[in-house]
Design a protein that fits this description.
16 strands, 415 residues, six-stranded parallel beta sheet, alpha/beta, globular, 14 helices
Length: 415
């Protein structure tokens, strides 16, 4: 194996480790840890230092995927045991009159701290980016001043925060260099920081709150608009009987999992166009910030025996790929078929290390024939890509029309 291929495979594994380590950090913030996960991480890092061939390197990358699966399971446990299982919820996406704070990033505990310390102070709280799914957790949504979500995905934050008339709390990653126009009212927490930006290294959020009170806030309510969220594993699996029957009776023909990272590239309009083109007898599952490409659209419902099944099921944050996997496994069991024999197609949007971690987890679980885009990462060499394509049928996206035709032509209807 040439040095370039070895470096490519090791880099794939290292990016996956970085993504999984971020999830491990989120769980630790809630007091959930597992020594065996730290031990496995150390073992993988040790093996990465060795002189290994292509197959050994790829097997090690898959081992990272298996490790990340366990990490996501731990984080799912941390989130649901602390805040309850997400519930189907109507969430507001337009602001209301009043002073305000917006919380972006990934950490649920930081949002809880904001909600507790602003209660009764006349300050409304909004989520942003990957924090959107927090509005479905029972022990967070109970706070009446959690209004809903403001703005869009991480790459729009300069536009969103510039217009936001309150203070901003950034938790963990996804921070872009702040503009001067809001640098005096943005704060960082935990593992994220930026030179010249105030960092809060304890649980006292009084500076953040005072900054919000010093800003004008929204002068009036905007017209109310809501979207439906909260379709994590517990909710969807409870609907499995209805969904399975709808498939068997031809009401649902296919499932699409469209999720992953969002980004700047114009090619990412592919995901919007694909979601719009998907036939009305198909269901879309989504997660992570890639959902912003189509989550504000009205996808409607599929009616079956008195139950309205939303055509768009938002499973949550990027780490809630664990939920999507559990849903797929539950359907596989209900239909008594292998997971690759389900009428399910996975279309991933790829950007950073958390997406790599989830991708490796899907490969570890044996998921095949996935589509990935908008382009393949530069560090994956042709030889490494050839091996993954051969073993797992991975394909880069082409056009929405071509990919949709290919998927639906090959779709198997379960009887």
């Amino acid at each position: 194996m040439c040095i370039r291929d070895r470096s490519s495979t090791k880099e794939l594994a290292i990016y996956g480790i970085k993504g999984g380590a971020a999830y491990l950090h989120h769980a630790k913030q809630l007091g959930f840890e597992d020594d065996l996960l730290y031990e496995e991480l150390q073992n993988i890092l040790h093996l990465l230092r060795g002189n290994i061939n292509l197959n050994e390197a790829l097997n090690l990358a898959l081992r990272v995927g298996g490790w990340n699966y366990q990490v996501m399971e731990l984080l799912d446990k941390a989130n649901t045991e602390t805040y309850g299982h997400p519930e189907i919820s109507s969430m507001r996406v337009t602001p209301v009159k009043g002073k305000c704070i917006v919380v972006s990033g990934h950490d649920l505990r930081d949002l809880e701290l904001v909600l507790k310390q602003t209660e009764g102070k006349g300050i409304n709280v909004y989520t942003h980016g990957e924090m959107l799914p927090c509005n479905a957790y029972p022990k967070l949504k109970k706070y009446k001043h959690l209004i809903g979500n403001y703005g869009g995905p991480w790459q729009r934050q300069k536009l969103d925060f510039d217009k936001f008339p309150g203070s901003v709390l950034m938790t963990t990653n996804c921070l872009i260099e702040p503009k001067q126009t809001y640098s005096n009212r943005i704060f960082t927490r935990s593992s994220v920081g930026f030179k010249g930006i105030r960092h809060i290294d304890n649980d006292d959020l009084s500076e953040l709150i005072q900054a919000a009170l010093n800003q004008p806030g929204f002068s009036e309510d905007e017209p109310k608009k809501e979207i439906t969220i909260g379709f994590a594993r517990n909710t969807v699996i409870n609907l499995a009987g209805v969904i399975v029957d709808a498939v068997k009776k031809g009401k649902i023909k296919h499932f699409f999992l469209i999720g992953g990272c969002d980004g700047y590239e114009l090619e990412r309009t592919y995901y919007t166009d694909l979601a719009k083109m998907i036939p009305k007898d198909c269901v879309i599952l989504t997660l992570a910030c890639g959902k912003y490409r189509f989550n504000m659209l009205d996808h409607g419902f599929i009616e079956h025996e008195g139950t309205k099944i939303p055509r768009l099921l938002d499973c949550g944050q990027c780490n809630d790929a664990y939920s999507a996997i559990q849903i797929a496994l539950a359907l596989s069991k209900a239909f008594n078929v292998g997971i690759n024999d389900l009428p399910l197609s996975i279309v991933l949007s790829w950007f950073e290390q958390k997406a790599v971690a989830v991708f490796l987890t899907l490969l570890h679980l044996g998921m095949k024939n996935m589509l990935i885009g908008p382009r393949l990462p530069a560090f994956v060499t042709p030889k490494v890509l050839e091996t993954i394509v051969k073993n797992y049928g991975l394909r880069p996206i082409s056009t929405p029309e071509q990919d949709l035709k290919h998927i639906l032509t090959k779709s198997q209807q379960l009887q």
